[in-house]
Write a structure and sequence with these properties.
CATH architecture of the domain at 56-114 and 158-215 in chain A: 2-Layer Sandwich
Shape of chain A: globular
Strand order of the largest sheet of chain A: 4-5-8-6-7
Strand content of chain C: 25-35%
Oligomer: heterotrimer
Number of strands of chain C: 36
Number of strands of chain A: 12
Strand order of the largest sheet of chain C: 5-9-3-17-14-15-16
Shape of chain C: globular
Distance between the termini of chain C: 81 Å
Largest interface: B-C, 74 and 81 residues
Radius of gyration of chain A: 19 Å
CATH class of the largest domain in chain C: Alpha Beta
CATH architecture of the largest domain in chain C: 2-Layer Sandwich
Structural class of chain C: alpha+beta
CATH class of the domain at 56-114 and 158-215 in chain A: Alpha Beta
C-alpha cells in the first residue's frame, strides 16, 4: 500500500469536513474492499476516514416512511433486523448471498454499494486498464466470460453489488453528503456507466460520500425476490442476478421493477421488462416475455453469451416467485 | 478529478459530465477502432506486445513515506500499546507485535479465511482490517482458547475427529466453529457448513470438521 | 546382508536403486495380532496445530530478519536491458536489491540461472528487494525501474499447435512442440480393425494450481559464515540439502534444512526453487536471516501447477464390450521449461485389459511457469479422458458402464506381465455403486429427468503406483527414561506420517504409543527420499519397523542378562519386557533403557521390492450430480469413494486422505482453472476469488470407504500408498454423471456453468433463425 494518514472521526460533520479538505481521501466502512484494493495499488488515498465511530451512519430506522438505512449499517445487522427483513424480504435474499459470514460481519451497506468492480483486468496489478487510467480495455478482445452483455462502452465491467439491484428494485434513494450539505437522488441514478465516466462507478466526486439509503415502505401487495447465479455456492460474485419487485393486486401486476446484476456496468434496470409485466397477470409465458425483453439489446462478447440465457432464467424465476407462483 | 460542488445540488453536474463524456468518447472510439483493426489479427501466431504497454504508474499516487501511529489493541483480554505503520493490518499486528503466530495469512485479501479471528463476538478476516481500525474492539485469537493447559472442547474435538491435516487453515476454522456453537449449541450439518463457508481448506478437512463441531456440541 | 538392485516405481517413473536387503521380520498379515496398528488414533501432533503453537516456515522470524519481494516481469517473454534500483535503495529500510547484473551467475536448472536477463513468463523474477519491514516492500518493488525489450511469445495452446516451426524457434530454441513420445503394445491398427464399435472424443483438461494454504518460501541464514540453515516448507528436506549444497558449492554436511510443520505441498514443494537460492544468496550478501515468502498473486503466477492437456481418446471394442484397441494422443503443456509428468500414457497402458494400445504425448512449450507434479500427476488428468470415453463406449454399446469396466478388468500388470500383489478394484466398484444407489439413481436414458433440474450418476476409477521403495531410512533411539524418538528426514505434511510411523514403532517395540515421539523433516536425520508419490507409508513403515526391531534387540540383550535368560526368549508388550513362557519374570522397558551405558539407536531402512509383482493402489468413485440445465450450475450431491490401500495403519487418517483427494478433485472438475489472457500472455486468475477452490458448502456428502486388502507381498507391514489415489476418479465421475443427468457431454474442464450451458445449447436441435 501507499502510506496514508488515518482518522476515525466520531461525528458526520467532522468526516465531511475532512473529506472536503485538500488531498486524496477515502472513506472506510468495514474496509474489506478498500484495504485489499490498496494492497494492489488500485486505491492510493493519502488519507483514510474510518466511519465506524459515527453513530448516525449506523442508524437503522424501520419505523418511518421511508425506512432509513445508514451506510454504516453492517450486512449482518441488516440481516438481524427482523423488522427490516419482514418489510423487505428481497433484501434478505440479497444480503444472504453476499460473500461470507466474516465479510458480512464487517461489510457495510455503503461499502457494498460503493465497492469497485471485480473485473480481473481492473483488479490485477499486471494490467493498466482503461478504468485505472490506461488506454485499453483488455476485456474487449480478452477473457470476457464475466463481463457485460448490456451497457458496456469502451469498458465492460459489471457492477458487483448484490444489494444494489435489490434496493433499486425497492425504489431506494441515495442520500449523498458533503461539507456543503446533502442531496437525495434515486439510487439507480447514483450509479454511472462508462459512457459517463469510465474511471468511476458512481456519481460521487471528491468531498462527497454516501450517507444514507432511504427505502419507501412497501405498498400493499408488494413482493420482491432476488436471485443470483454464480460459479461456487458461496464467496462468489454474480455471473448474473435478477431483482424483481412486483406490486400485485387481485392477480394483476400493477407495478414492476426489474433490475439485473452481473450483466452491466451499473445495476441494470429494465423498463422494457417492466412494461411487459405492467397490468398483466403473471404466467410463465409472460415472465418469459419480460425476460426476453430485458435482454433484447444484449450484445454478448466472445465468451459471455451464456449470460444472455442465464439471466433470462433468473428473471423468469424471480418474476414467478414474486408473483407467488413458487418454483425455483 | 473534478472540483467539489459549491452549494446544494439536486442533480448530477451535467456540464462537467458532458465535457468528460466528449473527451472520453474520443478515447473510446479510438480504442474501438483499434480493437476492430486488431480483431482480425487475434488468431495469428505470436505477437510482441508493442501495442500493449506494461503497467505504468498512471492513476497511482507517487511514493509517500510511512506514517506511524500509536494505537492500543485489546487482544485475548490484554491491552497492547503499539506504534505501527498505519498500513499494518490486524493480522500483522497480532503476529509481529503481539507475537501470536497462530493466525495465518495465506492470501492477505480476505479470500481464504485462515486469518479469521473473533472481534466483538463475530468472526472477521483480520487481514482485511487495519490495525488502527481494530482499536476499541475485543479481539480473540486461537491462542485464547486453551486455558491453563486445558484445550477448548472444539480444539479437543478437532484432534479427536482428525479435522486437522496441514493445519494452516485450522485456526480460522476453529474460530468459526467456536463462534457457531455460541449462538447455535446444537447445529446440524447444514448449519456447520454455513458457518465454515468462509474458511477454505485445501487438504479436505471439511467433513471431519463437521464431525468435530457435532462432537464438541454434544460434549457441552 | 547382500546388496541388490531393486526396481522402484514412483508416480509411474521407474528407477533402479542399489539397496541392502533386510533381516526379514514376520509379515503383519490379516491375522496378525496388533495392539496399535489398525486403530483409529488421533494425530499425535494435531495439538500443536489446533492451539496455534506450531511454527511453520511462515512463522519463523529470527532476530535481524529481512523480508524480500521480487520485481517480476510484466511480459511473457522479455530481455532486461537496464535495471535502476537507485530510488528503491534510497528508501529507509531497504537493504539490498539484486538482479542479473550485480550478482555472479548461479546456474539453476531448468531456467538457466537463478537471475536471468531473459525472462520467460509473466511473473518471472527480474530483481529481488530485501528490506527490514514488510510494509515498505511493495513501494520499494515499484520503485525499481526495469527496462525490458519485449520478445515474441505464445501462451495459447491452439496457437502453439498451429504455429510454423520457424516462428516457434523465435520463442523457444526447441520450438513449441516436441516430437511425440510414443508407446505401443500390440498392433493398434489391427485392434481397430477387429473392433465392432469405435468411439472417439477429445477433452481439454485445464491448468489447476496446488494452491497450498502456506505460500512457498523459506527462511535462510548463514551461521558462523559457513553453515547454511534453512527453515523451509518442503516435502523433501534431504533432497533440498543436497541441492543447496551443490548450488553454493559447499559440502552437504554444512547445510541444514528443517521442516517441522508445513501448510500443504501436494507436489509443489519437492525441489529447490529459485526463492530458495535467492533467500540464501541475500542472506549471504547481507549477513542477516532472509525470509522469502510469496504472496497469493505470486503463488498463482510463479509456482508450478498441474499441466493442461488436450487429450484425444479412441476406443475400439467388440459388440460384447471387450476392448480391442485403446489409443490416446495428447498435447501436454509443460510451460516455458520442461518438467516431469507431461507424459500421461500410463492409464491407457495399464488400467484396462487390452492387447493393443498406442499413445502419443507431445510436449508443448508456452510462456507460462513450468509444471510440476500435483497430487496424482498424469494419472489424474488421463483418467478424465479414459473414463469418460469408457462411458461413451458403454452408451454406444448400450451397456452399463460398470459392467463394461468389470469386463475389461486387468488381472495382471500389462506393462510387465507381473501379477498384482493385491487388487481390490472389484470390491471398490461394488461398494461405490451400492453406496450411490446406482441401480435406482442412474438414468437408463441419460437426461430423462423431467424439469430443468436433472440428476444422474457417474463412475470413475484409479490406478497408481503404490509400492514405495528405497531410499527410506529411519532411526529409533531409546532415551534413558524409556521414551522413544523416531528420526527421519521424511516430511509430515499433516497427512500423518508422524502418527502412523510412531504407531509402527510402538507396535514393534511393544511400548505404549504415548512414549514415542516422531522427530521428522530435518535433513541431518536418516534420509528419506521425500513425501510425494504416495510413497511414505509403504517405504517408511518397514524402515521404521526395522529400526525399532534393531533397537529392541539391544533392549532384549540387556534385559536377558538381567533376567538370566536368552534374548530370544523375551517379548515386550505395553512397555514391559517379559519371558515369553513365564510372564511373571519381567522388567519394565524403561528400566532396561536406564541400564544401558550407550545410546540405544536402531537403524532401519527400506529393503528391496518384490521383483515378481507389481504393487498398485486401486479405487473407484461414484458421483451423483444435479444439473440445473437452465443456469448451467452443477451441484455435486453425493460422492462415494472406495480405495484399496492394503492395510490401513490408521483408518481415520486414510479417510482424511480420501476426503482431501475428493475435495481437491471436485474443484478440478467443477471450478478451478488458470485463465490466461493470451493477447498479453498474462494469467488473470491471480487471486482466490477468481481461482475458485471448493468451499464447505460446495462439498458433496462424501462416503469414504477403505477396501482393506492387506498386501503381504508388498512389504512386511501390508500397506500400500494412499495419499494421491483419491484425487483421480472424482473429475471423471462428475463428467460421467453430468452426461447421465443431461444426455450431453461436457468435455472441457472445469464443468463451469458457462461451459455446461454452451454444451447444452450446442446439443439442441437447430432453431430456425
Amino acid at each position: 500500500m501507499r502510506a496514508f494518514t488515518y482518522a476515525a472521526p466520531t461525528d458526520l460533520s467532522s468526516a465531511l469536513a475532512r473529506l472536503g479538505a485538500p488531498g486524496t481521501h477515502a472513506v472506510m466502512g468495514g474496509g474489506t474492499d478498500l484495504v485489499n484494493s490498496m494492497k494492489s495499488y488500485i486505491e492510493t488515498p493519502a488519507d483514510i476516514v474510518d466511519l465506524q465511530g459515527i453513530q448516525e451512519l449506523q442508524a437503522l430506522d424501520t419505523s418511518g416512511d421511508p425506512v432509513q438505512i445508514g451506510v454504516g449499517v453492517k450486512l449482518v445487522d441488516m440481516l438481524a433486523s427482523q423488522p427490516l427483513m419482514q418489510l423487505f424480504p428481497i433484501l434478505q435474499d440479497a444480503a444472504n448471498v453476499v460473500a461470507t459470514p466474516q465479510l458480512r460481519n464487517v461489510g457495510t451497506v455503503g461499502g457494498n454499494l460503493c465497492q469497485r468492480p471485480r473485473c480481473w483486468y481492473f483488479r490485477s496489478v499486471d494490467f493498466n486498464c482503461l478504468r485505472k487510467g490506461g488506454t485499453e480495455c483488455y476485456a474487449i478482445l480478452g477473457q470476457n466470460q464475466y463481463h457485460a452483455i448490456l451497457g458496456g462502452l469502451g469498458c465492460f465491467i459489471v457492477h458487483p453489488s448484490d444489494l444494489a439491484p435489490a434496493l433499486i428494485g425497492l425504489g431506494a434513494q441515495a442520500v449523498i453528503g458533503s461539507a456543503s450539505g446533502t442531496r437525495s437522488i434515486p439510487l439507480e441514478s447514483f450509479f454511472i456507466g462508462p459512457e459517463v465516466d469510465v474511471h468511476r462507478e458512481n456519481v460521487l466526486v471528491p468531498g462527497e460520500m454516501l450517507v444514507r439509503i432511504d427505502v419507501p415502505r412497501p405498498a400493499a401487495g408488494q413482493r420482491g425476490v432476488f436471485l443470483k447465479s454464480r460459479g461456487r455456492q458461496t464467496w462468489d460474485f454474480a455471473t448474473t442476478a435478477a431483482a424483481v419487485s412486483l406490486v400485485m393486486s387481485a392477480g394483476t401486476c400493477t407495478s414492476a421493477r426489474v433490475v439485473l446484476g452481473g450483466v452491466a456496468p451499473v445495476p441494470w434496470r429494465s423498463p422494457d421488462a417492466e412494461a411487459v409485466l405492467q397490468g398483466r397477470s403473471i404466467t410463465p409465458a409472460v415472465a418469459a416475455q419480460a425476460a426476453a425483453a430485458a435482454v433484447k439489446l444484449a450484445r454478448p462478447m466472445q465468451y459471455n453469451a451464456y449470460k444472455v440465457d442465464q439471466v433470462q432464467v433468473l428473471i423468469q424465476r424471480a418474476i414467478l416467485q414474486a408473483a407467488g407462483q413458487g418454483g425455483s | 478529478m473534478e472540483e467539489g460542488n459549491a452549494g446544494p445540488v439536486t442533480e448530477t453536474p451535467r456540464r462537467m459530465t458532458r465535457r468528460r463524456f466528449l473527451g472520453k468518447a474520443a478515447t473510446v472510439s479510438a480504442a474501438a477502432g483499434a480493437a476492430s483493426a486488431v480483431l482480425a489479427a487475434t488468431s495469428d501466431a505470436p505477437r510482441s506486445l508493442a501495442a500493449t504497454p506494461a503497467p505504468t504508474t498512471v492513476g497511482i499516487a507517487p511514493y509517500r513515506p510511512p506514517v506511524y501511529q500509536d494505537i492500543t489493541l485489546h487482544v485475548n483480554g490484554q491491552d497492547y500499546n503499539l506504534r505501527v505503520d498505519t498500513r499494518m493490518t490486524l493480522t500483522e499486528a497480532i503476529r509481529e507485535e503481539v507475537h501470536l503466530t497462530g493466525t495465518k495469512i495465506p492470501c492477505d485479501q480476505g479470500e481464504c479465511g485462515a486469518c479469521t479471528v473473533i472481534m466483538d463476538g463475530r468472526t472477521v478476516y483480520s487481514c482485511s482490517i487495519l490495525a488502527a481500525a481494530a482499536q476499541g474492539h475485543d479481539i480473540l485469537t486461537v491462542e485464547s482458547l486453551e486455558q491453563q493447559g486445558q484445550l477448548h472442547p472444539v480444539q479437543a474435538a478437532f484432534i479427536a475427529q482428525d479435522a486437522v491435516q496441514c493445519g494452516f487453515c485450522t485456526s480460522g476454522q476453529i474460530m468459526s466453529v467456536v463462534t457457531l456453537l455460541k449462538s447455535n449449541p446444537n447445529p446440524d450439518e447444514a448449519a456447520i457448513r454455513q458457518a465454515i463457508q468462509g474458511n477454505l481448506c485445501r487438504c479436505g478437512t471439511y467433513t471431519h470438521i463437521i464431525e468435530a463441531a457435532k462432537a464438541a456440541a454434544a460434549q457441552a | 546382508m547382500p546388496w541388490v538392485k531393486t526396481q522402484v516405481v514412483t508416480e509411474g517413473i521407474v528407477t533402479e536403486v542399489l539397496v541392502e536387503t533386510q533381516v526379514p521380520l514376520p509379515v503383519w498379515g490379516p491375522d496378525a495380532q496388533l495392539d496399535i496398528v489398525g486403530q483409529r488414533i488421533p494425530k499425535v501432533d494435531a495439538r500443536y496445530r489446533v492451539t496455534g503453537a506450531a511454527q511453520y516456515m511462515f512463522d519463523k522470524q529470527p532476530p535481524g530478519m529481512l523480508w524480500v519481494k521480487a520485481v517480476r516481469s510484466p511480459y511473457p517473454h522479455a530481455r532486461i536491458t537496464a535495471v535502476d534500483a537507485s530510488a528503491a535503495l534510497k528508501m529507509p529500510g531497504v537493504i539490498d536489491v539484486i538482479h542479473f547484473q550485480n550478482t555472479d551467475p548461479i546456474a539453476y536448472a531448468p531456467n538457466g540461472h537463478v537471475l536471468n536477463q531473459e525472462l520467460s513468463y509473466v511473473g518471472d523474477i527480474a530483481a529481488v528487494v530485501a528490506a527490514e519491514d514488510p510494509r515498505i516492500l511493495p513501494d520499494a518493488v515499484r520503485a525499481v525501474n526495469v527496462t525490458y525489450e519485449q520478445l515474441p511469445f505464445v501462451t495459447d495452446l491452439q496457437q502453439a499447435i498451429a504455429m510454423d516451426p520457424a516462428t516457434a524457434k523465435q520463442i523457444f530454441p526447441q520450438g513449441v512442440l516436441s516430437q511425440p513420445a510414443v508407446a505401443d503394445r500390440g498392433d493398434i491398427n489391427a485392434g481397430f480393425a477387429a473392433a465392432d464399435v469405435t468411439v472417439e472424443a477429445t477433452y481439454l483438461t485445464q491448468v489447476v494450481h496446488h494452491a497450498t494454504m502456506e505460500p512457498h518460501g523459506c527462511v535462510a541464514q548463514w551461521i558462523n559464515g559457513y553453515e547454511l540453515h534453512v527453515w523451509d516448507s518442503t516435502q523433501a528436506a534431504y533432497g533440498l540439502q543436497q541441492a543447496f549444497a551443490k548450488t553454493f558449492q559447499i559440502p552437504d554436511s554444512q547445510v541444514f534444512v528443517w521442516m517441522d510443520f508445513m501448510g500443504g505441498g501436494f507436489g509443489s514443494k519437492t525441489a529447490l526453487w529459485r526463492y530458495h537460492v535467492l533467500a540464501a544468496l541475500l542472506a549471504q550478501r547481507t549477513g542477516r536471516p532472509v525470509h522469502f515468502i510469496n504472496d497469493r498473486r505470486e503463488e498463482l503466477l510463479d509456482t508450478p501447477h498441474r499441466p493442461m492437456h488436450q487429450q484425444t481418446w479412441r476406443l475400439g471394442a467388440t459388440k460384447d464390450g471387450k476392448l480391442t484397441a485403446i489409443e490416446m494422443k495428447s498435447y501436454d503443456v509443460a510451460g516455458a521449461f520442461n518438467g516431469m509428468f507431461t507424459n500421461i500414457s500410463a492409464v491407457a497402458l495399464q488400467l484396462y485389459s487390452c492387447p493393443n494400445v498406442h499413445t502419443e504425448d507431445t510436449t508443448v512449450f508456452l510462456n507460462l511457469h513450468q509444471l510440476s507434479a500435483m497430487r496424482g500427476p498424469a494419472n489424474t488428468e488421463a483418467m478424465v479422458g479414459m473414463e469418460a470415453t469408457m462411458d461413451l463406449l458403454a452408451s454406444k454399446l448400450n451397456m452399463d458402464p460398470v459392467q463394461l469396466r468389470k469386463l475389461n478388468y486387468a488381472t495382471v500388470d500389462q506393462t510387465t506381465n507381473h501379477p498384482y500383489s493385491t487388487k481390490g478394484l472389484m470390491d471398490a466398484y461394488d461398494y461405490v455403486t451400492q453406496a450411490i444407489g446406482w441401480q435406482s439413481n442412474r438414468k437408463t436414458t441419460p437426461g430423462s429427468d423431467p424439469g430443468p433440474k436433472k440428476r444422474g450418476v457417474g463412475i470413475g476409477s484409479q490406478i497408481w503406483s503404490a509400492a514405495g521403495g528405497p531410499p527410506s531410512n529411519a532411526e529409533v533411539a531409546i532415551q534413558a527414561d524409556g521414551s522413544v524418538t523416531v528420526r527421519s528426514s521424511v516430511a509430515d505434511l499433516g497427512e500423518g506420517p508422524k502418527t502412523i510411523l510412531s504407531m509402527v514403532a510402538a507396535e514393534e517395540l511393544g511400548v505404549p504409543l504415548a512414549v514415542v515421539n516422531a522427530d521428522f523433516g530435518h535433513s541431518d536425520y536418516p534420509w528419506d527420499l521425500g513425501t510425494f508419490g504416495s510413497r511414505v507409508t509403504p517405504s517408511m513403515a518397514p524402515a521404521v519397523r526395522q529400526a525399532a526391531y534393531e533397537a529392541q534387540q539391544e533392549i532384549f540383550t540387556i534385559a536377558a542378562s538381567e533376567l538370566g535368560v536368552d534374548a530370544s526368549q523375551l517379548t515386550c508388550k505395553k512397555g514391559v519386557v517379559y519371558v515369553t513362557s513365564d510372564p511373571s519374570k519381567s522388567i519394565p522397558f524403561a528400566q532396561v533403557a536406564a541400564l544401558s551405558s550407550h545410546t540405544i539407536i536402531g537403524v532401519g531402512w527400506r529393503g528391496p521390492n518384490n521383483a515378481a509383482y507389481t504393487t498398485e493402489s486401486f479405487g473407484a468413485q461414484a458421483a451423483e450430480v444435479e444439473v440445473d440445465t437452465e443456469t448451467g450450475v452443477v451441484t455435486l450431491l453425493n460422492l462415494a469413494a472406495a480405495h484399496d490401500c492394503g492395510r490401513a495403519i490408521n483408518p481415520m487418517l486414510v479417510e482424511s486422505q480420501i476426503h482431501g483427494g475428493v475435495d481437491m478433485a471436485a474443484g478440478y472438475g467443477r471450478f478451478e482453472e488458470q485463465v490466461v489472457d493470451s493477447r498479453t500472455g498474462i494469467p488473470v486468475t491471480t487471486n482466490l476469488v477468481d481461482y475458485k477452490i471448493e468451499t464447505a458448502v460446495d462439498e458433496p456428502v462424501i462416503d469414504a470407504h477403505i477396501v482393506e486388502n492387506i498386501d503381504t507381498i508388498a512389504n512386511n507391514v501390508g500397506a500400500k500408498g494412499m495419499a494421491e489415489p483419491p484425487t483421480m476418479p472424482t473429475a471423471p465421475a462428475i463428467m460421467n454423471a453430468v452426461y447421465n443427468a443431461t444426455g450431453v457431454w461436457v468435455r472441457a474442464m472445469p464443468l463451469s456453468p458457462d461451459r455446461v450451458l454452451a454444451a447444452l445449447k450446442a446439443a439442441q436441435p437447430q432453431q430456425s433463425a
